[in-house]
Specification:
single chain, about 300 residues, mainly beta, 14-stranded antiparallel β-sheet, 21 strands
C-alpha cells in the first residue's frame, strides 16, 4: 500500500552507475510488513557498438489476494514474496546492417514465497462430477524458489524490404517446501522460440507471420486406485510437476493489400490464426474416477478476411 522509490545515476569514465532503492510496506491479514529493495545497474561500453550490462537487486511482492483469503483457498499467515536476483547482458547494435541483438543471463533466489502444497490422495466424493467440482482445497504455504535462465533477442529494423525480430528463451525454475525435495514450478520452460517478421512486395502488398515453439507446461500426474470395500475411486498424486505436456507450436500468417487515396486508406487483409491447424495440448484434466486423462487442446485454424477503411 506504500512504496517510495529513489534513484541516483552517475557517469564515471564512460561507465554509467545507477543505484536505486524501494521501501515497500505491505498490508497483510496478519499485519503490516516492511521490505527494503536495494538495486544496482552498471552499464559500460565494451567495444564499438557493444555495451555490457550488469544488474542486481531485491524485489518484494504481496501474495495474490486469493492466496491470503482464509474464506476461499488461501492462508492469511503468508508473508510477502521476496526475491534476490541479478544478471549480466550484452547489447549490440549495427548501424550499417540495421539490427540490434541483446543477450542476457540471469539468476534469482526467493527465500520466502507462497507455494501451493498438495496432499497425497484425492478422494472422489461424487463420482458423477468431474474433478473440477470435487472438494479439493489447495494449501498455500511459505517456501523457497530459484530460477536460472537466459534469452537472446535479435531485431531487424524496418528500413528495407524485410523486417522482423526473433527471441530465444531458456529458463529453469524450482520450488521447495521445508519438508520436501525441490520440484519444478508451473512456469518452468526449458526452451521457447518466437520468430516474427514480414516483407514488403511493392504496390501496397505486404506479408507477415509469427512462429512460436515452446516446451509444454509441466503438470502433476495422477494414478487411479479403486477401494472395493467402500466402492470409492481415489487418485494418488505423483511427484509435483514431474510430467510435461507435448511441445507447443503455433504459426500465424497475414497478407494484406493497401490502397492510399487522398482522403482515405483501405486495407484488404487475410489472417490465418494457427495456420497449420496444430491442436497443441494446453492443459490436462482427469475424469471423475481418475482413470482417464482429458486434454484441452488449442483452437483450430481460424481464417479472417476483412476490409479496413480509415478516413
Amino acid at each position: 500500500w506504500l512504496s517510495p522509490y529513489g534513484e541516483w545515476q552517475q557517469d564515471v569514465g564512460g561507465v554509467r552507475l545507477t543505484a536505486g532503492g524501494r521501501a515497500t510496506a505491505h498490508l497483510l491479514p496478519s499485519g503490516r510488513s516492511f521490505a527494503g529493495e536495494p538495486r544496482l545497474t552498471i552499464q559500460a561500453p565494451v567495444a564499438g557498438d557493444v555495451d555490457l550490462l550488469v544488474y542486481g537487486g531485491g524485489y518484494s511482492q504481496r501474495p495474490a489476494i486469493w492466496r491470503l483469503s482464509e474464506a476461499a483457498v488461501g492462508n492469511p499467515d503468508l508473508p510477502p514474496n521476496y526475491t534476490w536476483g541479478g544478471g549480466v547482458g550484452l547489447k549490440m547494435y549495427s548501424m550499417s546492417a540495421g539490427f540490434t541483438m541483446d543477450v542476457n543471463l540471469y539468476a534469482a533466489y526467493s527465500p520466502t514465497m507462497a507455494i501451493r502444497a498438495q496432499t497425497e490422495t484425492l478422494e472422489v466424493l461424487v463420482p458423477q462430477l468431474p474433478l473440477a467440482f470435487q472438494d479439493v482445497i489447495p494449501d498455500y504455504r511459505t517456501g523457497r524458489g530459484a530460477a536460472i535462465g537466459g534469452d537472446l533477442m535479435v531485431r531487424l529494423d524496418p528500413r528495407e524490404r524485410w523486417f522482423g525480430w526473433s527471441a530465444v528463451t531458456m529458463n529453469r525454475t524450482w520450488r521447495w517446501l521445508d519438508e520436501g525435495a525441490a520440484f519444478r514450478s508451473d512456469r518452468d520452460q526449458p526452451f521457447g522460440l518466437t520468430l516474427a517478421g514480414g516483407a514488403r512486395f511493392g504496390e501496397g502488398w505486404r506479408a507477415t507471420g509469427r512462429l512460436r515453439v515452446a516446451t509444454g507446461q509441466p503438470f502433476t500426474p495422477i494414478s487411479p486406485i479403486y477401494n472395493a470395500t467402500d466402492d470409492v475411486w481415489s487418485g494418488i498424486l505423483g511427484a509435483p510437476n514431474s510430467d510435461r505436456l507435448p511441445w507447443f507450436t503455433q504459426l500465424d500468417l497475414r497478407i494484406e493489400k493497401t490502397w492510399i487515396r487522398p482522403r482515405s486508406e483501405r486495407i484488404l487483409y487475410l489472417d490465418l490464426f494457427n495456420a497449420t491447424n496444430a491442436r497443441t495440448p494446453l492443459s490436462v484434466e482427469f475424469s471423475a474416477d481418475f482413470t482417464e486423462r482429458l486434454t484441452r487442446r488449442y483452437v483450430p485454424i481460424i481464417p479472417n478476411l476483412g476490409l479496413e477503411v480509415t478516413f
